[in-house]
Amino acid sequence: MAITFGAYATLAGWPPAATILMSALVFSGSAQFAFITAMSGGAGLIAGIGAGALMNLRFVPMAAAAARSLHGGPVRRAFEGQAVVDGSWVLAQRPDGTTDREMMIGATLVQWPAWVLGTAVGALLVPSADLLYRFGLDVVFPAFFLLLLLEAVRSRPDHRWVALIAAGLASVGVLVVPVGVALLLSAAASLIVLRRRPNSAGGSR
């Protein structure tokens, strides 16, 4: 995925150094792809930033859920919060709803250099689309998120309806709105969980 992004950004006109720096600072594949796509399509800087910001809105509830597991004062907690990325966050979720802080931080410490290195390879070597296709690099990203979804459903089977409804919203949404917007709309399925929690809490008193 990182190799694909590096090659994609370079082919879109970005200098390799700027592409690598973006991965080092942003470290969010979906937001980076959204930004480059918007910019290369002539949407402009503000629209590109907006597209990336919309893709990263998912980190707000994820960070809120992990916040109680972080240590230290505001500065340290903000620093540790940088470990909240998709793969690390899902891997660190416990069945009781808490977050394994050490697991999340450790997983991110492995993913970040791999993402930057992969971007560098793609940006500097710019492999052809045929090469990416033959090695299956074009399906790594969706396959990765599918595995995360399956793991989340396995660990929280009571939330399987959230995944099904989100998939349905995304499938219908792509027929009438851009893909990025459809994905954001699918996040509305999480409201089911938020609605059920107060009832659960009230029932346990």
Write up what this structure looks like.
- It contains 13 helices and no strands.
- The protein has 205 residues and is mainly α.
- The protein has two domains: 2-136, no CATH class; 156-205, no CATH class.
- The protein has helices at residues 2-11, 16-26, 29-40, 45-56, 59-67, 74-80, 86-91, 101-125, 129-134, 140-155, 160-173, 179-186, 191-203.
- α1 (2-11) packs parallel to α3, α1 packs across α8 and α2 (16-26) packs antiparallel against α8.
- The N and C termini lie far apart (47 Å).
Q: What distinguishing features does this structure have?
A:
globular; single chain; disordered C terminus; mainly alpha; 205 residues
Topology, element by element:
Elements: H1 2-11, H2 16-26, H3 29-40, H4 45-56, H5 59-67, H6 74-80, H7 86-91, H8 101-125, H9 129-134, H10 140-155, H11 160-173, H12 179-186, H13 191-203
